[in-house]
UniProtKB/TrEMBL annotation, chain A:
Family annotation (NCBIfam families): PRK13254.1-1
InterPro entries: CcmE (IPR004329)
UniProt family annotation: Belongs to the CcmE/CycJ family.
Membrane topology annotation: Single-pass type II membrane protein
Lineage start: Bacteria, Pseudomonadati, Pseudomonadota, Alphaproteobacteria, Sphingomonadales
Record-annotated membrane-spanning stretches: none
Identification of the protein by name: Cytochrome c-type biogenesis protein CcmE
Subcellular location: Cell membrane
Nucleotidyltransferase in keyword set: no
Primary site of residence: membrane
Organism: Erythrobacter crassostreae
One term of GO molecular function: metal ion binding
UniProtKB/TrEMBL annotation, chain B:
Gene name per UniProt: ccsA
Protein purpose: Required for the export of heme to the periplasm for the biogenesis of c-type cytochromes.
Identification of the protein by name: Heme exporter protein C
Family to which this protein belongs: Belongs to the CcmC/CycZ/HelC family.
Subcellular location: Cell inner membrane; Membrane
């Protein structure tokens, strides 16, 4: 075996080892490196009442209800499955906060199972569509990529 | 590839390729960005801030592509000991880091109006920041070995090990719940409207040409630097030579 081939084999072995190490590391991080809980994840492993967590999902259509004080809204967050989490938030809403869009809320669950949000972030999906084309024949919502809001 | 082990052959190729790549890349990138600012309609949700796409996406791809280039050059250096490989890897590092920084900065500016925050520690943003630090580490390591003497293999091994971050960046939005959106352009197609997609592709090609031009420029500069150093070293040796060996210089 020529020295060149020996080095080739060594580099390939090193690459395989590095890739394996990286994959194992990221695989173990799988659940710890999530930026937020989906509603179904929150239902499966409910965090303690008052524990600071993030909840992410889609704002359920028709669920946004402004409260009489003018600054508080209640809405429902849905995930990939049927489970939903009701959310209450007082503060300025992000511009992209609309029904059917993605949202990430900082806050905690209260004793009644309502998520008390302290901060809202809007999550943009992967569809880029000009404003005037929205709703036209060629741009029906069904043509958009299925918005994946998180891991299944 | 071994034809270009001779720096003269490489330099004669680089001499006409450098301005060609640089200027065509500059014209195409600027054209695509100006088109994106003037001629593209606002997005249905993001509004005007969609225009930053034409800088952010090419910069992100080239930041990652740059490290892929470093890793390939490093492998070529370690296996075939190609003399240009370490020069190529060093030449790629700085523009790669610059494009990564541009990606992070423009993403942050886009995130403020879109998400409502400048920065979050989600998988995509964090792994991209790690890439920026990897570039800084690589540049420091390669400069230290170039200046202090030492094996170029050290930086090459670092270049290969650091490459593990590239698939992690790419998959971060698929593996983990993240605030950053999933990929819009995949093997299955694109969820970007054609009126955004074409200027985006033009910007990607333009940025890539520009990147290639800058890398060739830096490779020529690094080769010239090496030649100057070699010449100075030879002259220093001549000066140190015993006086008796140079009677001509003495009498003159």
């Amino acid at each position: 075996m020529k020295a060149k081939h020996q080095r080739l084999v060594l580099v390939i072995l090193a690459l395989v080892a590095i890739v394996a190490a990286g994959l194992i590391a990221t695989w173990t991080l799988r659940n710890q490196a999530n930026y937020f809980y989906l509603p179904e994840q929150m239902a499966a492993e409910p965090p303690a009442v008052g524990q600071a967590v993030r909840l992410g999902g889609m704002v359920q259509a028709g669920s946004i209800t402004p409260q009489p004080d003018g600054i508080t809204v209640k809405f429902v967050v849905t995930g990939n499955e049927a489970s939903t989490v009701p959310v209450r938030y007082s503060g300025i809403l992000p511009d992209l906060f609309v029904e059917g869009s993605g949202v990430v809320a900082d806050g905690s669950l209260d004793a009644d199972g309502v998520f008390q949000a302290t901060n809202l972030l809007a999550k943009h999906d992967e569809n880029y569509v000009p404003r005037e084309l929205e709703g036209l024949e060629a741009h029906q919502p069904s043509d958009y990529a299925d918005t994946t809001i998180g891991i299944d | 590839m071994h034809i270009y082990a001779n720096p003269k052959r490489f330099l004669s190729l680089a001499q006409w390729l450098t301005p060609l790549l640089f200027w065509s890349g500059l014209v195409l990138s600027l054209g695509a960005i100006v088109w994106g600012i003037i001629n593209v309609a606002p997005d249905r949700l993001m509004g005007e801030s969609v225009r930053i796409l034409f800088i952010h996406v090419p910069a992100a791809w080239l930041g990652m592509g740059g490290w892929a280039g470093i890793a390939i050059s490093s492998a070529v250096l370690l296996i075939w000991k190609h003399p240009l490989a370490s020069i190529a890897a060093r030449a790629i590092a700085l523009p790669g880091m610059t494009f990564t920084a541009i990606c992070l900065a423009t993403g942050s500016i886009w995130g403020r109006p879109t998400w409502g925050t400048w920065w979050v520690w989600d998988g995509r943003l964090t792994s991209m920041l790690v890439l920026l630090f990897l570039y800084a580490g690589y540049i420091a390591l390669a400069q230290a070995t170039a200046r202090e003497g030492g094996s170029v293999k050290i930086a090459a091994i670092f270049g290969i090990v650091g490459a593990i971050n590239i698939p992690i960046i790419n998959r971060s939005v698929v593996w983990w719940n993240s605030l950053h959106q999933p990929p819009s352009i995949t093997a299955g197609g694109s969820s970007i409207d054609a009126s955004y997609l074409w200027p985006l592709l033009a910007a990607v090609i333009g940025f890539s040409l520009l990147f290639g031009g800058i890398v060739l420029m830096r490779m020529r500069a690094l080769i010239a630097e090496q030649q100057v150093e070699a010449r100075l070293r030879r002259r220093a040796l001549d000066d140190d030579a015993p006086v008796a060996a140079r009677p001509m210089a003495e009498s003159a």
